Amino acid sequence: MSSKIRIRSALRGYLLWPVILTGLLLCMNLSIYVLDKKAGLVMSGFVLVYFLIAITVFYLKRHKIASELVHYAMDYGQVQKQLLKELALPYAILDVEGRMQWGNDAFLEIINEKKTVRKSITNIFPEITEDKLPAREKDESIHITYNQREYRVLLRKMIAPSFDEDFHWSSEDAVNIWSSKNALIAMYLYDETEIISLMKANKEQRLITGLLYIDNYEEALETIDEVRRSLLTALVDRKINKYMQGIDAVIKKLEKDKYFFVFQQKYLHHLQSNKFSILEEVRGVNIGNEMSVTISIGLGVNADTYIEGYEYARAAMDLALARGGDQAVVKDQDKIAYYGGKSIQMEKSTRVKARVKAHAFREFVEAKDKIVIMGHKIGDVDSLGAAIGVYRIAKTFNKKAHIVINEVTTSLRPMLNRFVGNPDYEEDMFLKNEQVKEIVDINTLLVIVDVNRPSYTECKELLDYTKTVVIFDHHRQTNEAIDTAVLSYIEPYASSTSEMIAEILQYIGGNLRLKPVEADALYAGIMIDTNNFLTKTGVRTFEAAAFLRRSGADVTRIRKLFRSEMIDFKTKADAVRNTEIYQGYFAITVCASSEVDSPTILGAQVANELLNINGIKASFVLTEYSNQIYISARSIDEANVQIIMEKLGGGGHLSVAGTQLKNQTIEEAITLLKATLDKMIEEGEL
Length: 686
Hints:
By secondary structure, the protein is α/β, with parallel strands linked by helices. The strands form 4 sheets. Strands 7-8-6-9-10-11 form a 6-stranded mixed beta sheet.
């Protein structure tokens, strides 16, 4: 009503202007009286006539003018309504519950329906549910598909207070205004089919940079006679080129075992769906070679520039090689996907890499004042043995060294007690997190052993305290990596980190001499991680063991150190007795943790024991410890437990892997593990 009064007042003021101007004429008339009375009288007559005419016109013409305005408003409203009805943009009005009240011609043409009044919008567009309707003044945008067209739907809430005579715009009603029954929702449909189609075409035509390396070129050629070496090379090269032709790729051979290629992104889904079948095809090439040829592929996807795409591909290739090769790694900006990696990593017979890493490590040791060594949380014998080996290197070059250990388990205590209180070693050899944080500075060398994931280290904060970080590990790398490492020696084919450190010790120089107790620690690390030299052992494993034996390691002494307590033995027996055989060849059980000191270690031992059962391809032992569920996974050669554990956020090796699950119960973890196994079997990954 207030808007109508304002319009009426404006119209009355406009019509009364001639009457109002009479006051100005009276002022002029008074001025003329002062100058000449006769002229003033004449002027007064004319002013009176003007006033009477203005009043007459106001009262006689106002109804006619109002009638003309009404006709104009009606005509304008009809034009406005017609324009809205024929608007090219599909437009509709809904009530607050999502029922259609009105739609223009463009909207009705899309839905092919004329009778739309009171019909729920959800019945027309199932994606637009009641919970997606705007609750307040904020617009809601929804993407839908209708009749094979792509639309962006904009929903905007509007208030119509004049529908309710008792409703007024006041501050007291501000809270309830948006929930008023008189509110309406305006709905706009924007057809984005062409835009999305063009965006998709543009994305599919983007070039992906790829690198392809033959992992074991020299080693594979050495396993066949010289006459057939060129034939093997030609067959592998033909397989690779034929595969690249299938995706319309341009490929260039950079070296005898390295290729560079580019292809359109629309073929990426095809490669991912068949899980990079070229890996299997190349591995299947056999003309008498004892060792199968394997390849690694690195792809850089969705990079902003070609240079950045190449850097992505190089990073993906580095990750593929660090994980043991025989796999494809796709790096999509910050996302990384793995394919393949099912074969056992072949041990390299040459020690050139170990020698090079040893010399590089020596330079870092000599350049720093202090050395801090740490392994993973809930340290095991391998991480302790490797740390002891690095400690000996530091002391050989007269450097102050410390080992970070927070929690000492029952399995670790016998070996640790041989160093604690030993007069040959300093009292501050072992430190906890709080102690080591006080001594680490920018001039400290941080050496990480038996782990390459920052979240799994004993003290993650140390990575921020120093910029000189060195990594020695035998686990496959994952998406989570320590990017600040100045030296990274990660060999997935190695049996243990203790084996790697034993090789480093032989090349580090400085007249290094291991003490028997230190040789025992390294030898025990190899023995525990290989399950008494039964798992992941190669020529270099036994060579490292031989070096440690020459340095004074005693097998009998080590065996006595790691004998089990009776309660531990009973706990393992109960876990084996309660084992469930899932899918006919997966052994799943739970290792109790209430009465034992090192339940995770026992879980790993139970997993190893279960592999002795005929027909078992892989074993999984779950242990609840420190408000987390630990899963130890083991296999011999029939299943890749590493890729299974990666699905659950963990990792490891083909035959030895594990993961940690948070905020889950044992029952939920078992259900998740079984669902993961079912899915991988269905997709052909197992």
